[in-house]
Amino acid sequence: MAWTREEMAARAARQIEDGFYVNLGIGIPTLVANALPPGMDVSFQSENGMLGIGPFPYEGEEDPDLINAGKQTITEIPSTSYFSSADAFAMIRGGHMDLSILGSMQVSETGDIANWTVPGKMLKGMGGAMDLVAGARKVIVLMEHVERSGASKLLKECTLPLTGTKVVDMVITDLAVFEFPKRGGPLRLIELAPGVTLDEVKAKTEAAFEVALEAKAA
Amino acid sequence: MRDKVRTDAKSALQGALKDGMVIMAGGFGLCGIPEHIIAAIKEAGVKDLTFISNNCGVDDFGLGILLANGQVKKMISSYVGENKLFERLYLDGKLELELNPQGTLAERIRAGGAGIGGFYTKTGVGTVVAEGKPTREFDGHTYVLETGLTADLSIIKAWKGDREGNLIYRKTARNFNPMMATAGRLVVAEVEELVETGALDADSIHTPGLYVDRLFVGDHFEKRIEKVITRPREGVTEGAR
User: Which of A112, A135, A190, B54 lies at a 20 to 30 A Cα distance from A205?
Assistant: First the structure.
């Protein structure tokens, strides 16, 4: 059985170490905060200008001056600090964030990522994604293994406009976990979702990858 | 004696608006936007405006109302995904758009206000953002040259201000406002509360008064929320995003 979105998030949460400062993108990465084991001291950053994100507010206690980068109402916690967006990106660009977890549309076998636009179909903008992949110490991508059409999202080369080149450290899909032991490649398969076979992953992956399933038993 | 305090948005903008000007507008999404000044710009009807702002509001609030009123020629932004009208105008060729990575946009404004002509960043290297821009190696990494940004006018939203123009922002409503307050040739701020000079804690001031030319108290802030997300009273659902 392939992993659900929650199970993918839980797998990503295992990469978070006690004491980490983490930025979560919108989509599946949002679920990672819920999947952290209790007792871990982890701070989440929001790139509009906040470190130490609390839970969603109780109904009636929403504060329009307090939102996350997904523009959702949130709350503060005792460790929270606020700062300008310039300071927020100094943190990100300056390599002070331990980890960035993002969704994506495509990842290449050299660790390029394309996750901000589909020409002619989607006009939104890159927001902070280019800064995050360029600046975070570690970049993990959480995405479905294939598109709705069945086409692989792990490609030899990205066909969509890039967000960054040679920046991805790990890719967690609904079928498997891959890592780039060194940025820029080669890509290495290190884990299969329960019941997923190597043959299935090979059939659904365009990117070339090494297989090292024994090296990292889950 | 300096007299920076005005009665309302209209008087604060007197003589400041003209067709074709470049305006920086603070805010992230609808959080921390100068909603009274935006309404007054709509009222004034000036056209062919270029806005430097992270987003462009929603269809009927924030900068979106100026878009709907045909007053915007160009946007310099990082994310415009919450605005359907924006997409239509852009695809019809009626609106120019320059997309910047959010951190690059923030830093370009900070640089512009600080007298820095340009800076090198790793953000965007190898992407369309870097096309046509000089690059340079530092310590084995490639960086791309980005230029500082300034504007004819910066419109700012703060929580508290004093008569000297010192400003304090509240929570994540700070966002782009402090940098923009440094990068406009004329800076107009709207505040929720005006206090006498000396009443703000001098150690807690975010924007020193020298940056602010005019300020006024907004009479009623709508402060619309884009995405209200709550948790049940009983639950302990964590919500990082």
Answer: A135
State residue A217's pLDDT score. Answer: 46
Q: What is the DSSP string of A11-61?
A: HHHTTPPTT-EEEE-SSGGGGGGGGSPTT---EEEETTTEEEE-PPPBTT-
Question: How would you class A121 by CB atoms within 10 Å of its CB: exposed for 0-12, middle for 13-18, buried for 19 or more?
Answer: exposed
pLDDT classification of B236: cutoffs 50, 70, 90? low
Contact A46 B172 (CB under 8 A): yes
What are the CA-CA distances from residue A160 to residues A139, A154, A164, A207, B132 (Å)?
19, 12, 11, 15, 19
CB A131 to CB B103 under 8 A? yes
Q: Using CB atoms, which residue from B80, B178, B225 is nearest to A124? A: B80
What pLDDT, on a 0 to 100 scale, did the predictor assign at position A132? Answer: 98
Number of Cβ within 10 Å of residue B45's Cβ equals: 11
Instruction: Specify the DSSP class assigned to residue A152.
Output: B
Chain A residue numbers with beta carbons less than 8 Å from the beta carbon of B133 are: none
Residues A55, B231: C-beta atoms closer than 8 Å:
yes
What span, in angstroms and rounded, lies between the C-alpha atoms of A180 and A111? 7
A82 contacts B106? CB cut-off 8 A: no
> What phi, psi does B206 have (nearest 5°)?
-85, -45
Residue A47 annotated as catalytic: yes
Interface of A with B in 158-217 (CB under 8 A): 161-165
Contacts of A66 in chain B (CB under 8 A): 171-172
Per-residue pLDDT of chain A (218 residues; tens, 9 = 90+): 899 999 999 999 999 999 999 999 988 999 999 899 989 999 999 999 999 999 999 999 999 999 999 999 999 999 999 999 999 999 999 999 999 999 999 999 999 999 999 998 878 999 999 999 999 999 999 999 999 999 999 999 999 999 999 999 999 999 999 999 999 989 999 999 999 999 999 999 999 999 999 754 44
Using a CB-CB distance cutoff of 8 angstroms, which residues of chain A are in contact with residue B82? 71
Q: Compute the distance between CA of residue A142 and CA of residue A102 in angstroms, rounded to an integer.
A: 6
Q: Return the residue of B nearest to A65 by Cα.
A: B173
Q: Are B57 and B63 in contact (CB under 8 A)?
A: yes
Q: What is the pLDDT of residue B83?
A: 83
The residue from A6, A7, A17, A47 that is catalytic is: A47
Rounded (5°) CA angle A167-A169-A173: 115
Please give the full DSSP string across A68-133, using - where no structure is assigned. -TTSBB--EEEEEEE--HHHHHHHHHTT--SEEEEE-SEEETTS-EE-S-BTTTB----TTHHHHH
